[in-house]
Amino acid sequence: MPELPEVEALRDFLGEHLTGRVAVRVLPLAVSVLKTYDPPLGALEGGTAGAVTRHGKFLALRIGDLYLVTHLARAGWLQWRDAMPDRPPKPGGKSPLALRVVLDDGSGFDLTEAGTRKRLAVYVVHDPTEVPGIARLGPDPLADGFDREAFAALLHGERRRIKGVLRDQSVIAGIGNAYSDEVLHVARLSPFKLASDLDEEAVTRLHQAVRDTLRDAVERSRGLAAGRLKAEKKTGMRVHGRAGEPCPVCGDTIREVSFADSALQYCPTCQTGGRPLADRRLSRLLK
């Protein structure tokens, strides 16, 4: 799933390529993708593209007086084309295409979604905050006001495991499964540690890890073409997606805990005092 760093890089890329261009065609190609009906998609046609903003994992494209907002979900992506095909694609079938936007210079982009679980979402709204997922977002972890005290206030009284807290978009906007693994590895914390059990030093360490990990990932992605961002995300990971490989810090074997629809990765030496986590949904540290 694209997370804050990749969506931020897409924001930069689209801002550079879209601004000032006119949307001449906006074609829905998957019934499931559009989550609003008024204003209609066609209302975007003829509008000039303005600012592109990021809200957590959401992208908001100003087109005329409206916003085209998208959340790429787990398997969605944005594919830029310098020259769009003349012939419009056929909707339906097994094509991953979900939405196509064609600009006045012949360029444009496709929104695609792989797999059968269609969760990619597109909204046409007058204001991004009309999108429910944006309205409920917590603070952005790269915002100037996201200091150590603000972070500590978010964790105060939290009885959930810190991995789940970091992924909760209503607590902090933009961190998903991959970067929560990376942040916790940098902070040397178990993903199953209760947020309320973190001492002052651990909170400070975790806050710094959140900021540094995301900033570093944004810098690695800055200036890359949209098509290269997925590969950059994968190569930049220290533990996520690297089960069975040596930890880049201590050399211990990176372990995995699998759940029904996801998995987390961690280093026992760096994060859990050398003890492996039980690989079941309600895992606890093995004694």
Description of the molecule:
The chain is of the alpha+beta class. The chain is built from eight helices and ten strands. It has helices at residues 4-18, 132-135, 148-155, 162-167, 177-187, 200-221, 229-235, 268-271; strands spanning 23-28, 49-55, 58-63, 66-71, 76-81, 97-103, 108-113, 121-125, 255-258, 263-266. The strands form three sheets. Strands 1-6-7-5 form a four-stranded antiparallel sheet, with no helix packed on it. The chain has a four-stranded antiparallel sheet with strand order 2-3-4-8, with helices on one face. A two-stranded antiparallel sheet has the order 9-10. A hairpin with a 4-residue loop joins strand 6 (97-103) and strand 7 (108-113). The protein starts with a helix and ends in a 16-residue tail after the last helix.
- Gyration radius, to the nearest Å? 20 Å
Mean pLDDT score, rounded? 91
Structural class: alpha+beta
Distance between the termini: 34 Å
Residue share in β-strands: 15-25%
Order of helices and strands: HEEEEEEEEHHHHHHEEH
**Overall 3D shape:** elongated
How would a crystallographer describe the biggest sheet?
Answer: 4 strands, antiparallel
Which ranges are low-confidence, i.e. pLDDT below 50, for 5 or more consecutive residues? 281-287
State the helicity in percent bands: 25-40%
Number of separate strands: 10
Compute the number of helices: 8
Describe the strand arrangement of the main beta sheet, using strand numbers: 1-6-7-5
